[in-house]
Structures are given as structure tokens and as C-alpha cells.
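BUG-364 | component: ligand-complex export | severity: low

The export step for adenosine-5'-triphosphate jobs runs without errors, but we want the raw record kept on the ticket for reference. Input record follows.
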Amino acid sequence: MDSKKEPQERRKKRIAVIPGDGIGQEVIPQAVKVIQASGADVELTDFDWGADRYLRDQLTVPPDGFAMLGRDFDAILVGAFGDPRVKTNIHAKEILLGMRFKMDLYANVRPVRLLDAALCPLKGVEPKDVDFVVLRENTEGVYTDAGGVFKQGTPDEIATQEDINTRKGVERIIRYAFQYCERHTKLDGSPRNKVLMCDKSNAMTHAGGLWQRVFKEVSGEYPQIIAQHMYVDALCMQMVRDPRQFDVIVTNNMFGDIITDLAAGLQGGLGMAASGNIHPGKTSMFEPVHGSAPPIAGKNMANPFGSILTAAMMLAHLGMAKEAQKIEAAVLGAVRQKKTTQDIGGKLETTEAGEWVANQVSHP
Ligand code: ATP
């Protein structure tokens, strides 16, 4: 059959792979190895966007780069961007924020799951106690770079940073949270049934007021789901005191950034956390939560599991649930048997940990 006429669902999925900088170049090849071991029917294409390319020819993203990604690929697997040689971090901004903003990937989905009690710094917490997801608004807030500096370098200097919240942007991420809650179960198979909106509406009254009104309105359309609210400061304390209470958390761009680092601490650190940047129906991008981690880059010691779990999340998103489950089970096995890098208590190098998981995936 002419492949162009095949239904979208049956066509081989095309994935753009952009390892980027620092440990991104070490962990993404491990994720790729594991995807290949899983037998997923995908076609992978590498892109060298990142600091090296920028320093060589000043290119961050080719002129039609984002349009090409949206047109020619089903998903994008990204490592990390950031390099001490590029002080302005311009390439990271243009590539990563460019993708999120220009491809309108408005839902940043960050699952927080504890695979093994030994990874959690909290006493008496079991894997079943940490199984929630943070949905971070990904295209607005303080990340739009609105604001400015006046009288710079003088004693009268003024700096402003605007927090942009649109009705459309707030409504679609809140609605996404309720839909996510309806469509996803917990790891033990039980249904998700709570959406908690996190803000700071007692201090940031204008933006918070909009979030409050929209949350009330949208939650009314989902009477079967429990709608809750918490101020971000209280949420930070509760996350450490009792993570069991959380199910689906929805919040703005900056609070989402901050609370997911805290949440990563509950699951074994930044090396274990996965994420997706999603616009339903469009080409979406998947990346580990960690950055390029310059202090450990090039040492073959970065934990590849965040990237490997990110790859599993991407395959599940593309309809390959079986392959995704195989990968998750293999990572769980690695953690239980301490076939891991040092950051989570093992003795393996990045490549060895990736190899171990790939072997498990191909010979479970
Ligand atoms: P960014 O600004 O891109 O978030 P960052 O420097 O604030 O970057 P990361 O690069 O994510 O943060 O990492 C901070 C530290 O966490 C690293 O220096 C490293 O010690 C640890 N870390 C992050 N990712 C990993 C990983 N995959 N494996 C082991 N340690 C990691």
C-alpha cells in the first residue's frame, strides 16, 4: 500500500532527536538506544542544534526550523541546552523557548513518581505515596520576557518583569488538567479524581484572580472531579509533609518550574524526572526535566533514566503503550537492582546504565 495513503495511526512515527548541550549529548543517545531496543516502529532523525553549532556558524535554529519540525515530525526528543561558552544563553532561549512558544506547546506535563522507596529523602514514604503529575502552563507568565530596565546602572534603576496571563492561555491549561485527570490512571490502575490549582492569588491578585475565576468555571464542567486550591507556598510545605494528597496539579509557568524541582527531589532527583511539552493534535516535544548540568558534563556519570523515561512518555503519547510499559518496567528493574548511576546510589556509568536498560527491554 502507498504509505502516503496509510491512516496516520499506522504510519511509522517520525521523531526528531535534538541532544543539545552538556549531558544532553550523553543521556539522549541512551534513550535512543532504549527506544530501538523496544522495537518501536519509529524513524529517528538527528539534529545538531545547540552550543557547538551556534559557536561554529552562529545558527541557533534554521529559518524554517520550527515549521519543519511541525510539518515533518510526529514528536521531538530533546536533551538540554546551556553551555558556559555561550554566556548570553541565546541559543538555549531561541531553541527551547522558541519551540515551546512558536509551536505553542502550552501544556508542560511533568509526572512525579517514586519508583523505589530508597530514592525518596522522606522517611516512611512508599512508591504508592508519590504518584502525581504537575501540569505547568508553558507559553505565558514571566517567561514572555515582557518588561524592561530603566536608568540602568544608576542608583535610580528600575526593573520590571511582567506576568502575562491571558484568558485563553489560562483556560486551556486548566481544561487540559481536567481532561488529563479523566483520561489517566495512577500507576496502580486506580482512577485519578482530583485537580488542584496552585497560585499566589492572595498577593498577585490580578493574575491570580483570573486563574481563580477560570478554575471555578471550568471545574463546574467536571462535577465528578474534585477541584482543590492551594497557595504555592503552602503547596511546597505539603509536598514535603504529605505527598500522598496530590493527584493532578495545575499551575502557571514559574510556579510549575519551581515546584517540579522540589517534586523531582521526591523521586530521586533531577536525573529521574521526565516531561512532555504538549499541544494536543500537534507535534509535541519531550525532554528530561534536568538541564545541561555543566559540572558533570563529559564525565559519563549523568543519570540517563530521566531521558529514558521521557522517551517512554513520548512513545505512549504516540500510541505505543506496550513499548512504553516495557521501558518503564526495565527502569524500575534497574532502580531495584541498583543498576544505576551514582546520583541514585549505583556504581554504573551513563553508558552502562543505558545499556543495562536496553538489554532488559530487548530481553525482558
Ligand atoms: P537549567 O538552568 O538548564 O535548569 P541548572 O544548572 O539549573 O540548569 P541542571 O543542569 O538541571 O540545572 O542540574 C543541576 C545539578 O543537578 C547538576 O549540576 C547535577 O549535579 C544535577 N543533575 C542534573 N541532572 C542530572 C542527571 N541527569 N544526572 C545526575 N545529576 C544531575
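Assignee comment: Attached the raw record above. Residues 23, 27, 80, 82, 270-271, 290-293, 295-296, 302-303, 306, 343 surround adenosine-5'-triphosphate (CB under 6 Å).
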